[in-house]
Amino acid sequence: MKHLLLSLLFIVSNSAFAQSLDITGNTNVNSNPNLQAHSTLTVKNISNSSLDILCEKVIIDTTAGTSNFFCWAANCYGENTYISPATNTIGAGQADATDFGGYYDAFGSPASATIQYCFYPDNDPNDASCITIVYNGSTSSIYESFRALSLTEFYPNPASKKTSISYVASKNSFLQILDIFGKTVANIPLDYSGSLTIDTDRFQSGIYFANLIVDNQNISVKKLVVK
User: What is the mean pLDDT of residues 174-189?
Assistant: First the structure.
């Protein structure tokens, strides 16, 4: 009888701590501090029932002057929202790898944040599964490599026929020139460093923006006026 009671107690105890969800994903997100960091997670319903799931954000540590927010249930919520107002329905045995997004902005300064995201059925917050993500915008090798890349100002500016600009770039770099409506008017491949002369008489008069693109990331922006 004693063994039977102990077995029943063990089953009840384990049931009380049973979890319906399994959360997986990258828990360390390193990024250029000038760009928005983005994390993704896979939320799997390992229970036998379809569940309406909430997401809760818990800030464990963060650098002052930075910002974070998350997306869940087809919506994104502001920095001051900690529990998603909406639920995401996941069927029994099904997984969702696209709906969650965690975002962190260091605004150009070496900074970091440690944020925990918890997921649970909307009717049972005690059945929560959590994962902690470290957003690191202070990785020196990343920060220093991007900080070294640059564009000078255009000269002359305004320009009528020609203008020049100097740059420090790297592999897989180009200068993207956009008009004021955001339409790309030129993509110019770049070497690692040098000076570039652009014939502006082929552009209509107006305001343009030149983006230094390195490995598909916008590193620097300069304004050009064509007369």
Answer: 89
Count the neighbouring beta carbons within 10 Å of the beta carbon of residue 51.
24
Tell me the one-letter amino acid at 215: D
Three-state secondary structure string covering 194-207: EEEEEEHHHCCCEE
How distant, in Å, are the alpha carbons of 31, 140, 149 from that of 112? Answer: 10, 12, 22
**Residue 4 φ then ψ, to 5°:** -65, -45
Contact 135, 109 (CB under 8 A): no
Domain end position, chosen among 82, 114, 138? 138
Same domain, 102 and 60: yes
Whether 54 is covered by a domain: the verdict is yes
**Residue with structure tokens 């960091």?**
37
What pTM value is reported for the model? Answer: 0.57
Residue 7 parent element (H or E):
helix 2-16
Greatest pairwise CA separation for the chain in angstroms: 97
CATH at residue 88: 2.60.40.10
What is the distance of C-alpha 176 from the center of its chain? 23
- The reply to whether 95 and 126 lie within a common domain is yes
* Per-residue model confidence as pLDDT tens digits over 37-80: 889 999 999 999 999 999 999 999 998 889 999 999 988 998 99
The total of structural domains in the chain comes to 2
